[in-house]
Amino acid sequence: MHYGGKIIIGLIIFIGLLLSPxxxxxxxxxxxxxxxxxxxxxxxxxxxxFMRTKHMQLLDEWRDWxxxxxxxxxxxxxxxxxxxxxxxxxxxCHKNKADFxxxxxxxxxxxxxxxxxxxxxxxxx
Amino acid sequence: MKQNRRKFIKFAGAAAAALCVAPNVAKAASGGHxxxxxxxxxxxxxxxxxxxxxxxxxxTVEALQPLIDVCHKIHNVPNxxxxxxxxxxxxxxxxxxxxEQLNPHLDDAVKGRAYALxxxxxxxxxxxxxxPTKATFKRPDGIVAxxxxxxxxxxxxxxGCPYGSRSFNFSEPREHFTEAELKELDPKFPxxxxxxVEKCNFCVERLAKGERPxxxxxxxGAMYFGDLxxxxxxxxxxxxxxxxxxxxxxxxxxxxxxxxx
Lengths: 125, 261
Description:
The complex is a heterodimer of chains A (125) and B (261).
Chain A: H1 4-25, H2 48-68, E1 73-75, E2 81-83, H3 86-93, H4 101-108
Antiparallel strand pairs in A: 1-2
Chain B: H1 5-29, E1 37-38, E2 49-54, H2 61-74, E3 90-92, H3 94-97, H4 108-112, E4 115-117, H5 126-130, E5 136-138, E6 144-146, H6 156-160, E7 167-168, H7 179-184, E8 197-198, H8 204-207, H9 214-218, E9 223-227, H10 234-241, E10 244-245, E11 257-260
Parallel strand pairs in B: 2-11
Antiparallel strand pairs in B: 2-9, 3-4, 5-6, 7-8, 10-11
């Protein structure tokens, strides 16, 4: 085989580079981010499971209901009423966007564009 | 199984009938689930909201300034010192306001007034017709509303509006607030971002909670607000008693904003 040694060395380097991310992360278990939950409140708008997996769909429906249907009160599964508002409801409990929404989102690699317009509870600088 | 023509037609007929019924059965089985939402019982509602502005009382730039300030403050509208300014409520001269009702010998008092200009919330809004994403739409109560989430910034609505009631965000609006202003923003309302159009919303977010529009509240009785379809409403009463004009009647847009002259 022409250049056999070089090809094999090249292949070994290539496969080594290919596998390096796996080697680098080996042995480390995924740790869920530590979220800062509201101090005074016990319950979210819906169940923890629902919020964790479906809050984006809920927010999407909320904005259509508030703006397009003109209905700004949400009734949850327990019959409790909430004003439909990102800034005035969600962020009134979750007063710390950086240690709640952002922490989870940074971890999951999502960056919702909502805050280009909506004002976070920390305010603008 | 032996197939023949008769059997096939019978089967096809039954299948077609089942197809007609199936969606309704499915709907009935799911209990006709409705969205878990309602309007705030304290909210104000109307068949068609309208505004009447008494220009015999409210007619100088100085008198309009507090109304503009409160509107722009609660809606986080920046002040940009150029032709790229964003306006929800602003003063206009007689010529700018009533372009079709000019005459060379007009009463100086009427001609010299400053008029409060804002979105006319037309009954027949051209901006709604041209919007390709339905970001701007007419609510059942007559308010021409905007859903900023859908605005793609094409600016057709600005070309369509005969009143110049719409402003485009040529740059990030947040960059036009001073540091002090940024701290003073209304935390209850969003700002907008570069690339969307915006305009007066007749304070829908206040009406939903039972509050009248902010400019009307600040006008010390020089602005009337109410349901145009109700003969007993304050707007209908004042329209019966006083002479009023609307802007550009020949455009056929049927504005909901009236000016007492």
